[in-house]
User: Fold this.
Amino acid sequence: MPSRTASNAVVFDEGCGYFLVKALTHGQKAQSYITRSLEDGKLYARKKLIADYVNLVPHSDVKFANLVHPLIAPELIDSTQYTHVKDALYFRFCNGGDLRQVIDLYTKKEEIVPEDFIWHWLKTACSHIASLHYPIDYRTAVDPLIHRDIWQGNFFLDWPNPIPEPATFPQILLGDFGSAQYVSDGDMGRGPTGIGNDIYSIAFVLLVLLLGKPLALAGNNVQQNEVWDLIPALYSDEIKRVAVELSAHVVGTRFRVRDEQIINWGEPDTLELARQLIVRGEEMLQRFAEEGRPASDLRWTKPEVSGQPLFFDDAAALDEWCRTDNEARPLTGKWHLVPVQKGTLRLLRRSNRLHRGQYQRPAKRGQEDDGEEGHQAKRPRRG
Assistant:
């Protein structure tokens, strides 16, 4: 377990070096951590792709990360390419966590997610999707891009520092492009795997926001005309109407349904639909302001992150932390447990790798390297 008195910290030997700060929820495709750069002291999200999965299924995070505008997705800051494409990616850290965490916090308090925040999320999410599908303003590439994995856990919140008074809503970004793909001619207007999949995945997340939990619309579980009555009465008819309209299209995109439902499923003009929802969101937020409703304050949902590295007494303590706090998974990639001066975070061990104030990679690889030795592919920062 982490220690308050020990002075050993994990340093990932990637880029200029990163301290391990906190483990995040791991997925099927990758392990994620909050890290602190030895170069600038800022926090970054480290995403280490899982080799067994990536070797079987091509992963798109690296391919598309440089193409998506930082106003849409967390910016890729750094990457280290390992053998067998087991890349380690470092993204801009979003200090507000993800949308799933916000929903869970309100559910635990037995409160509904504020409607004005839902409208803010809806218009932002639709704007992101429209920009990916019709990349005129945001990307140099002209090929439409489908995200293909839109759910509440892939929307990230980022608060300004410091947060102004009165508090504004956090910025909302769409992350995890590991399943993304360009739209082929055959997908432009065809069913569940086509370009409409993203916009109707928005409907799925909207229902989760309104209900506080996922709702399966497949089969005979819930009929589309029952959605209105399931939404709490505290929400406006306008948001209920949007949910009902969009829920009609959820079948055939996210859930297992009868073959004839998929065959008969129609593809609308997703750009026009996204634009309509953006306008609705802006109009509703303006109406709330004109009615004198104060904007909902979501600052309490912002996770507390110390920004300090985790410290361990020894390797055994690190192993115990992996069992209890890292979902029983070992750390992967090239990393070292090194002595650190707590007050200054100066690395104390001296070697050809560790120097005063910075972390330096070896000039070239040797035959003794075990295959996890990465080569740097640092992405230039945007000016």
